[in-house]
Amino acid sequence: MGSGPDVAEERPLVLGEEVRRLRKEAGLTIEALAREAGLAERTISKLERGEGNSVTRRSTVAALAEGLGLAKPGEDWLWAVAQGEPVLSGFPATGMAALPYTLPRDIRSFVGRSHELDQLIEEAIDAEVVTVHVISGMGGVGKTALATHAAHRLVAQFPDGQIFLRLSGHTPGKQPVQPADALASLLLAAGAGGQQIPAHLDDRARLWRGWLARKRVLLLLDDAIDSKQVQPLLPGTAGSAVIVTSRGKLTALKDTRRIHLDVLSTDESADLLVKLAGRPEVDRADSGVEEIAHLCGNLPLALGMLGSQLHSNPAWTPAGLASELTQAGDLPEEINDGQETVGAVLELSYRDLTEDQQRMFRRLGLHPGADIDAWAAAALDEASPGEARRHLRALCEQNLLTEPRNGRYRYHDLIRALARKRALAEDPARERDAAIQRLLDFYVQAAVAADHHLARRAPTPGPGRNRPGPARIPEMPDRERAASWMDAERLNLAAATDYAAANGYLSHAVAIPAATHGFLRSQGYWDQAVALHQTALQAARHLSDPHAEARALTDLGDVQYLTGNHAGAEISLTLAVELAGQLGDQRGEAAALVEFGILRQNSGDLATAEASLTRALDLSAAHGDQLGQANALNNLGAVQFKTSKFTAAADGQEQALKIYRSLGDERGEASALNGLGGVQQAIGEYTAAAESLAQAVKLYHTLGDRIGEAYATGNLGAVQCIMRDWPAASDNLTRALELYHDLGSKSGEADMLTNLGALHRRTGDYVSATARLTEAIELYGDLTDPFAEANALSELGVVQQQTGAYSAAIASLTRAVELAHDAGERDTEAEGLNNLGDVYVDAARDAYTRALNIAAGIGVPLEQARAHEGIGRLLLQSGARADGIATLERSLALYKQIRSANAERVAKTLDS
Fold it and tell me: Could you tell me whether strands 402-405 and 408-410 are parallel, antiparallel, or unpaired per DSSP bridges?
């Protein structure tokens, strides 16, 4: 390509075309493009000095600007050129400059974030609008790493420059960069001379947007403090893209695409640590790698610091480092890179908060649970829920808190440690203690309010130290709101109980478990309930509060029974009955006797169960406790049902049902309907039984009482089985089995397996019947319920009989009869004996028939006669008189033929 002093005058339009082509094909700098296009240095100098015809200069510079993809020059710009003023890229400059490229180096150890990376890259390439992405997240979560990695992958899409500018929103020792200073830095990066940068913010912003016009530039603004800092730096015309990183969410920036960055997954964290360690012996299989990831809370900043330590200290192992961190008392300070700590980085966000927000930040560090809502936060901070909610949202805005569910807020583990550290350092002990007291008061009173809708008795906190004071609690006008609150706060209530017990708030440690018992019991959280009641029991004993101790023992025994720990339940409930009796606490004694009666009933000791429940009924009546009477009648009816006192059982259940309905106790109503349905089934009123049980199932389901629903659903399936409604029976029994399995109730599972075995037997599926019944009997072997085990063995014996396994059937039925006899289950014993007799008859008939076939085959008349005699007698016993006589006559003929003495015996039978 030629060059000379007049080339610009001769070829202004061709010049622009050649510049565009070369720029596209070779990616050359502006200076190189100018020279390759034929603009020799002296020609550029002539233009800058204002030599030559002004019209020529205008056309030449316009063509050059167009070729370089710059803004179309306006009259002011062209006039400046015509007057010989220096020009560059749309504003005065000292000369031609290279395209700005100031990105930091890419990160070799980058892992994860594939979804966020794809989103950035896909959405940034939009020539129709200015795309602005805000990447927000807590300090150290990897916002800059993601932004830089994405920017490097986008370089080819933004050929006019890629500019990185640190806004120092959270840089130790620095104030955030002011917008005017940021604009000056951007203008300098674009090639402006310092003396040409206007003094005022608006002028700088106008000049910056003018340079960006019709360009494709990628702008990375790192660590912004707020929206006001960013707004003046944004392009005004389409084509460019902006990526902003900030610990705040910058919600005031409109029309932006947002990416909230959370911590890495455990797998990604382990991969990052291994990459950073850079040692072949450190790999994912190392036991300490995931432990370090866990201790770091999967925070990339913390992982980076520890990965660097592992890399720099070859003698260190991940397991050894994890052990040291576990023993450390201050993880945010222990995790460091030798120059700064994680705690110092995170604390920069704390300093940006207002005084009220800082106080809330510290108070939240005192909370013993995993998450918190505005009500509990208000109790901690002695504020209104509205004020607390505003502070919580402000902390979320700064990414110091997350909101994983609407209205539920959570700290990252390292931020929680920082918050607690700041509380210990800045708040007097009396203020911290007062905050904890308010929080525990809140949990007690809210739990008691919820329990009024969820349990069939209301817990009352016992006297003692730290008596709960008045607290502001959410409204719980109905069961749904109460259950929702309990479900959301379940783990916090457990954490609060443990904290209260360990730190001397003993009455709270007694009251919270009592208030949560009904919910935990009905929802199947039995292991948690056992742990809470054991804590409550110890707290009551330390308080020397025997009333609270008796209540804790009663609740503990109840859930121990549900978990299958019948021995433990026996001890707890026996102590509860004795203690309440010694105290003259009739209400408490009656409650304990009801639970004890249920335990003895299901252990087969029906006499003791009946006596206990009768005593509970008398105590409740004497005390005028209608609810206690209903509970006693309801469970007494179940015992009377098992002892075949069906009339008394039905009367008791109907009385209980009437009381429950008068009290508006839907859970009690469901329980009474369930029991009544069992009695109606026993006396053959199957349609009525099915109706009662269907009502019970519906009530339990509406109440969210999973254990009650399982009971009633299983009973309904059993009735439907008797009614030969096989599909409905199968559906309900299978549903009940699933419920019991989810609840961890082994006895319930075993009962449903027995019922399903009976159903399969009646429908002729003997293989499935045998499998289900065998599984049930194995489960019963680990329990102490002889009545239920006898039922399962009896069913299995019948299946074995019908499949010809007579020896096995006799063994199963004999054991069933023994268990029923020992348990006093007379009806079950009678049923087992009848089944056993049938087996013997069937076994005998089978033996005689086989003997007859063999004897006939080998021609032995005596054995043929004996076989006919046996078969004939069995036919007579079964009522088949004509067939029996005909068979005995054949036997007599054979006996006479061989002159056997047995003929006389057969003849006497025929005569009779």
Answer: antiparallel
As given in the structure block, the two tokens for residue 158 are 């933004």
Residues 304 and 350 in one domain: no
Please say whether the beta carbons of 865 and 824 come within 8 A. no
DSSP per position, 833-880: HHHHHHHHHHHHHHHHHHHHHHHHHHT-HHHHHHHHHHHHHHHHHTT-
> For position 99, what pLDDT does the model report?
66
Per-residue tokens: 299: 């925070």
52: number of Cβ within 10 Å? 17
CATH number assigned to the domain comprising residue 159: 3.40.50.300
Q: Average pLDDT for residues 818-823, to the nearest whole number?
A: 80
| Final residue of a structural domain among 219, 244, 260 | 260
The rounded distance, in Å, linking the Cα atoms of 534 and 57 is 93
- Which conformational region is residue 69 in: left (phi greater than 0), alpha (psi within -120 to 50 degrees), or beta? left
In angstroms, rounded to a whole number, what is the distance separating the alpha carbons of residues 93 and 622? 101
Indicate whether 19 pLDDT > 60: no
Cα–Cα nearest to 769, from 741, 805, 814: 805
Q: Could you tell me the two tokens for 470?
A: 């008045």
Residue 21 placed within a domain: yes
**142 and 244 part of one domain:** yes
205 in the same domain as 147 = yes
Q: Are strands 257-260 and 131-136 parallel, antiparallel or unpaired?
A: parallel
Can you state the percent helix, strand and coil of the chain, rounding each to 5? 70, 5, 25
Structural element, H or E, at residue 483 = helix 479-502
Q: What residue type is 772 in one-letter code?
A: R
How many CB atoms are located within 10 Å of the residue 428 CB?
A: 8
The pTM assigned to this predicted structure is: 0.68
For residues 289 and 294, what is the distance between their CA atoms, to the nearest angstrom? 9
Tokens of 182: 């940021």
Q: Are 182 and 284 contained in the same domain? A: no
- What's the token pair of residue 878? 């079964």
pLDDT of residue 59: 53
Cβ–Cβ under 8 Å, residues 758 and 720: no
Are the CB atoms for 677 and 689 separated by under 8 Å? Answer: yes
Closest CA to 556 of 599, 585, 523: 599
Q: What is the pLDDT of residues 87-133, one digit of tens each?
A: 333 343 333 344 688 888 887 788 888 888 888 888 887 667 788 99
Asked whether the beta carbons of 459 and 394 are under 8 A apart, the reply is no
Domain endpoint, select from 201, 225, 260:
260
CA angle, 282 then 288 then 292, to 5°: 105
Gyration radius (Cα) of the chain, Å: 43
Same domain, 517 and 416: no
Strands 218-224, 162-166: parallel, antiparallel or unpaired by DSSP?
parallel
In 544-645, alpha helices (H): 546-562, 566-583, 586-602, 606-623, 626-642
Q: Which residues, 6 or more positions from 399, have their beta carbon under 8 angstroms from its beta carbon?
A: 136, 137, 138, 139, 141, 247, 248, 249, 260, 349
Indicate if 119 and 256 belong to the same structural domain: yes
Residues 846, 485: Cα–Cα separation, whole Å: 65
Provide the domain count of the chain: 7
**pLDDT value at 361 more than 90:** yes
Cα angle 109, 113, 115; round to 5: 150
Which range of residues forms the domain containing residue 879? Answer: 859-911
